[in-house]
Amino acid sequence: MINQLVKRLDAAAGPKDAQRVREHALPLGCAAATVDNSRLNDYIWLVINKIRTETRPGQPARSLAEQVFVALVRASERLQWQVAEWLKPHELSLTQYNALRILRGAEPAGLPCREIAARMIHRDPDITRLMERLERRGLVARHRGQKDRREILARISAAGLKLVNGMDQQIHALHESLLGEFGDQQLHSLLRLLDALPVGRGAQGETPKRH
Fold first, then answer.
1. pTM here?
2. d(CA 51, CA 21)
3. What are the tens digits of pLDDT across the range 102-127?
């Protein structure tokens, strides 16, 4: 049970907190061993809160908002790292994969660079150069718009479509392995909380489209 607890905590709060759980939980002996799975999440956060409320000499106590902010940033970094590692064998970066998915959703019309940039989850300061790299690999094709010849539209190529479609099942499995254990009810609750965050909203309070 302790090993399971540390593994779950490592995913939820990071390896440093997980190591400290060993220090807190191991002396509990049989008490920790009798924690059943239905109460495991409650026990994890009980230990996390105990760790976080300990006095740290020379450091002011964090506000609850700061603790949540830091936890969100850390969780985001860990999740992005997992996906980036998974993409390496496909020779794609997070931004390239994001752009290909956006273009797949825009078929058959394609999109101009400014619209691709507006829909990106992972921002890229130079979308034009990103499109050029994907075009050199044969994953994207660009052409002038029919209505406005000054506008350059990008479309996902047949090779790009084949690549992204072939990755769908694997990326779904990755998402499930990272978050599936929380269950639908917890994930819906988490999604509602994240959707309520004002971060990333436009001037009119609207959240940009993401793919």
1. 0.64
2. 8
3. 999 998 888 998 899 999 987 778 88
Span 160-203, pLDDT tens digits: 999 999 999 999 999 999 888 888 999 999 899 888 888 644 43
Q: What is the pLDDT of residue 29?
A: 40
CB 210 within 8 A of CB 119: yes
The token pair at 33 is 């061993």
Torsion of CA 210, 93, 16, 53, to 10 degrees: -20
Strand ranges of the sheet holding 152-156, from the earlier edge strand across to the other edge: 111-112, 152-156, 140-144
| Contact criterion met (CB below 8 Å) for 112 and 153 | yes
> What is the spatial distance between Cα 211 and Cα 121, in angstroms, rounded to a whole number?
7
CA distance 11 to 6: 9
* DSSP designation for 207: P
Angle at 153 between CA 151 and CA 158, to 5 degrees: 160
Asked whether 2 and 9 are in contact (CB, 8 A), the reply is no
**Residues near 8 by beta carbon (within 8 Å), at least 6 away in sequence:** 40, 44
Cis-peptide into 108, omega within 30 deg: yes
